[in-house]
């Protein structure tokens, strides 16, 4: 049982509202809930409505008393596809509309948020966290290889290996990602790398923005939980 003078830490988890990202961060939320950590899962109104309609998401998390869903506007109309060549419009809308709402949520949420776990591709989450003085941890919903490829997109474009044209040999090697020179092919890159140079460069910018000077990485869940608990203790001791 938690000590009354030392309540459980309160973590806000904020994924990019695309289903693959949401699924990964829901699993993280479940693991942290099992560790007794209070979780607020912040999802876009549009994505959460789809979750509620097509899955048993509410039933899945009712067994965790410290867990709650909260929704936020993503700034796009209901009929917007939020995918493909229009995915970058979601990032622009969230930066313009969602960012100030997110800051307001952080300032008003009770009990206060001790730590934010933000999607590694949502750079504005870190900006807001710094403004309000809440520690932030970026969570990668993709593999290390995938992130490293995104991070290297500027170098790939500069070398002339992107964009991928419609009549390309899709087995052509992409040789400008250090460590992956001998096996990364055109077909292994996401669809937005095929002629959508603007989308590819935006993804690279977002990946680089979330790697902040002075940061560190977690290699296992137990270390992450220990650090989250210590953040809560520091807040309550001050």
TrEMBL record:
Domain of life the protein comes from: Eukaryota
Molecular function terms, GO-annotated: quercetin 3-O-glucosyltransferase activity; quercetin 7-O-glucosyltransferase activity
Family, as annotated: Belongs to the UDP-glycosyltransferase family.
Name of the molecule in the record: Uncharacterized protein
Organism field: Populus tomentosa
